[in-house]
Amino acid sequence: MIGRKAEQEELLRRYRKNKAEFIAVYGRRRVGKTTLIAETFHGQFAFHHAGLSPIEKEQEEKPQAQTYSEVKRQLKHFYHALISFGLHDAAEPSSWLDAFYLLEELLKEKDDGSRQVVFLDELPWLDTPRSGFVTALEGFWNSWGCLRKNLMLIVCGSASSWMMDKLINNHGGLYNRVTCEIRLAPFSLYECRQFLLDNGMNLTPYDLAECYMILGGIPFYLDALDERLSLAQNIDRLFFDQNAIFRDEFDRLFNSIFVNPEMMKRIVTLLNRRRGGYTRKEISELTGLSGKTLTSCMKALVSSDFVQYYVPFLEGKREAKYRLIDPFCQFFLRFVEDQQKEDEHFWVNHQASQSITTWRGLAFENVCFFHIPQIKRALGIAGVRSTHSAWILRDETESAQIDLLIERDDRVINACEIKFYSDEFVVDKTYYRKLLSRQGMLVERISPKVSVHQTLISTYGLKRNEYSGIFTQVITLDDLFHE
């Protein structure tokens, strides 16, 4: 399996322990949670069950009837899984309390003293309205599971906010019961390259970076690429073809994770309009959402890795912002959702357009924010504590913007310019003066004890000339591909 070494090692370490384990694995949908568990344990489960995807449309049309039928549907599916794993002579459960009792009976019957791994996938889908699922899970673990030294319960969920609220940060009967939590992040550029090479697809670093700007480090999306086609041809096939595989993925993604998908899509669409993001107040004013509803939405989007919450450099918490960081959503909203003309070869035909060139520059900034550890390693400061953010200055007399600031504990700030070019970046006289002016504005606003190092992050580095000395350090795309 590509990547996931630390996660696999932790799972196997927990497996070797002689104690009950309750492990929660969460992360963005399509990121590879199920694959991680299945590959680590090679499918050797005492019991495995995955929740059924909720039927959103029917719930809206007949909420009361559907609530009942959805509970029954999930229970029937769970019952069938119990039978397939060896349960005998048991009636179909009418509640989740009965269902977990049957699971106990199955595990006791199969118990030979060896480790029993129970894997419950897409756990949030099982918790339908008024189903009593969480209470039943609590009873199963607290009264039986936690006493079985050979039991290893692994639960997964793409609805990360549910996983955090109902399990990891539960203040009721499941308080402090999770013994290990694993947040599965998207692949890095290095892992993407290894994954694609394993699939027989050898892209240049430039194309790999662009691929990351579109699909992110999501294994499910990367696996859809056809090694016989160029990257541009693949993007047309996935997004712009008449039968494009991912044409409806944006809707499916939100419908499968959130109980209020339309509300979430409204927020995400707003955030996509401004790369620096919006404050909570601005989001409320522009969407009409407020109070606990807005708090719940933003919390869910952040925990699901679609949105980042950050405090801009030199600002206070009152100016904290939310910005969209999911590459797939950014690409879809910019190029796919509102495309008026049907062009099955849109991406191939517009490679040199100003619109796509501009997008590449902005999207590469996002890639760099995902690879701060690699950037710090290239700067030789991997062990130095730091914080990072963009800096945007807007006042009555001055304005400035720096793509990335790395504020270090050794009293240095790396002011990073991020450029995605098809050749070496050239600093001319005009740009040199712009950099000096911007540095001056920054120096005026920070402590005199702090030094500013102008740093360039560019695809192929810097062309040396009389002005290139403005940059004290240069990081290339190759530096971002380190493990």
Please provide the count of β strands.
13
Number of helices: 22
Helix content bin: 40-55%
Integer-rounded radius of gyration: 25 Å
CATH class bucket of the largest domain: Alpha Beta
What does this structure look like?
By secondary structure, the protein is α/β, with parallel strands linked by helices. The chain has 4 domains: 5-183, Rossmann fold (3-Layer(aba) Sandwich), CATH 3.40.50; 189-242 and 342-363, no CATH class; 250-334, Arc Repressor Mutant, subunit A (Orthogonal Bundle), CATH 1.10.10.10; 371-480, Trna Endonuclease, Chain: A, domain 1. The chain is built from 22 helices and 13 strands. The protein has helices at 5-16, 33-41, 56-61, 63-84, 96-110, 123-126, 133-143, 160-168, 189-198, 205-215, 219-222, 231-240, 249-257, 261-271, 280-287, 291-303, 327-336, 346-349, 354-370, 372-379, 429-444, 477-480; strands at 21-26, 47-50, 116-121, 151-157, 180-183, 278-279, 307-310, 321-324, 386-394, 399-408, 412-419, 451-458, 473-476. A 5-stranded parallel β-sheet has the order 2-3-4-1-5. A 5-stranded mixed β-sheet has the order 9-10-11-12-13, sandwiched between helices. A hairpin with a 4-residue loop joins strand 9 and strand 10 (399-408). Helix 10 crosses helix 19. The radius of gyration is 25 Å and the shape is elongated. It starts with a helix and ends with a helix. Mean pLDDT is 93; it is low at 56-61.
